[in-house]
């Protein structure tokens, strides 16, 4: 078992650190945010992720997992994983400030040869630069590995333990071997490659998934115009194994901390080597259009939205997380407020952060309360409790049941049994 340090305890760092301690490694997680570390030391998770908190507590109890904000506490680690944020800058490129700050501290702290594993999503060439940067600041030998992360928020632990693949990129066979050993208890196929290819695998994978989403969303717009049903079209397409059925759900666009920023960063990266990535630029454009779809539908239906009481169900960028980064809900609420609507919102996990962002919005404590007296309702995130709400609740709680379903949660047959107006994505309107 290995002595491991994880720098950055966000979604990726925390889940990875907890998972590695769970399979027996001795893990120290470090973050510069003292509030996070304080919570974690008390066995509380600063993020919402199913089963994470009990797993933190269990591994703390076994003395395999600890949390610190002091770099000195990680100086003995054999492997240092970097999982700090790489947010998007104004021009779309990745901001590498945090990663180089972490590198500088690691260089000053370590007291022996070490393997540095970059889990953060970084532009091609960054790991090589980072290696040189650390090496220039320490007498000890630095072995660099790119090990991009593919976990999905809301499903993070399952993805960690049962992921499709682990990508290990390095020019150093000893480091590759060390990282393969670290992950071996997971029993997940591992792929080894060079640093640059590993870095690009992450961007190419996210860009491809985003392309599938924008593609089916474009098909959904055609469906609406020709009277076809996008669900049937997607099902028929997905039965072809060359296409596959995942990521073919039409909706109001992708969001989150990865797809929007990684697609823009790849366009930027391509531009840096004088390649115009036309396809990916269109994918991004289609997604921006799609995030505005519900408000466009509402305006088409009602004309002015001034003073309209509108309920938004779901705020997180997807179910199972409290993450609001680049969530379609932000675009929708912002635009509705500018249109003069009166908004009530509900989300099972993301409301604390949303309250800070939108002081003008009323937040309800459950779905039923949120719908009470609403003139229009919109489903933005398909949480189970929202998806499974009987349609009779809309009839009972709203003045007139008018629902804009941005996630196609209900079958059209089901809707037709109720007295309501129903607008969804890529399917005929009802009512
Ligand atoms: P996050 O913003 O949730 O967490 C980053 C953490 O790093 C924060 O807690 C911050 O305080 C800490 N930090 C910043 N600078 C530091 C420093 N110098 N030393 C120690 N800690 C520092 O980020 P995240 O969502 O976990 O993403 C991390 C990386 O992983 C990003 O590059 C992201 O693109 C990538 N990624 C994210 C996901 C995801 O689903 N969130 C999935 C795959 C890859």
Characterization of the model:
This protein is α/β, with parallel strands linked by helices and 431 residues long. The chain folds into 3 domains: 3-193, NAD(P)-binding Rossmann-like Domain (Rossmann fold); 202-287, N-(1-d-carboxylethyl)-l-norvaline Dehydrogenase, domain 2; 292-423, NAD(P)-binding Rossmann-like Domain (Rossmann fold, 3-Layer(aba) Sandwich), CATH 3.40.50. Helix content is 44%, strand content 14%. The chain has 18 helices and 14 strands. The chain has helices at residues 11-22, 34-41, 52-61, 97-109, 126-135, 156-162, 173-183, 195-226, 230-238, 259-272, 278-291, 293-302, 328-338, 351-357, 367-371, 384-387, 392-397, 412-416, and strands at 3-7, 26-30, 65-68, 79-82, 114-118, 142-146, 166-169, 190-193, 309-313, 342-346, 362-363, 376-379, 402-405, 421-423. The chain has a 6-stranded parallel sheet with strand order 3-2-1-4-5-6, sandwiched between helices. α1 (11-22) links the parallel β1 (3-7) and β2. α1 (11-22) crosses α3. The protein is globular. The N and C termini lie far apart (62 Å). The structure holds nicotinamide-adenine-dinucleotide. Nicotinamide-adenine-dinucleotide is lined by residues 7-13, 30-33, 36, 83-86, 98, 101-102, 120-121, 149, 151, 153, 257-258.
CATH class of the largest domain: Alpha Beta
Which ligands appear in the coordinates? Answer: nicotinamide-adenine-dinucleotide
Number of strands: 14
Tell me what the CATH architecture of the largest domain is: 3-Layer(aba) Sandwich
Q: Strands of the biggest beta sheet: in what spatial order?
A: 3-2-1-4-5-6
Round the Cα radius of gyration to an integer and report it. 23 Å
Structural class: alpha/beta
Mean pLDDT: 96
Pfam family, one: UDPG_MGDP_dh_C
GO molecular function, one term: NAD binding
Keywords: NAD, Oxidoreductase
InterPro entries: 6-PGluconate_DH-like_C_sf, NAD(P)-bd_dom_sf, UDP-Glc/GDP-Man, UDP-Glc/GDP-Man_DH_C, UDP-Glc/GDP-Man_DH_C_sf, UDP-Glc/GDP-Man_DH_dimer, UDP-Glc/GDP-Man_DH_N, UDPglc_DH_bac
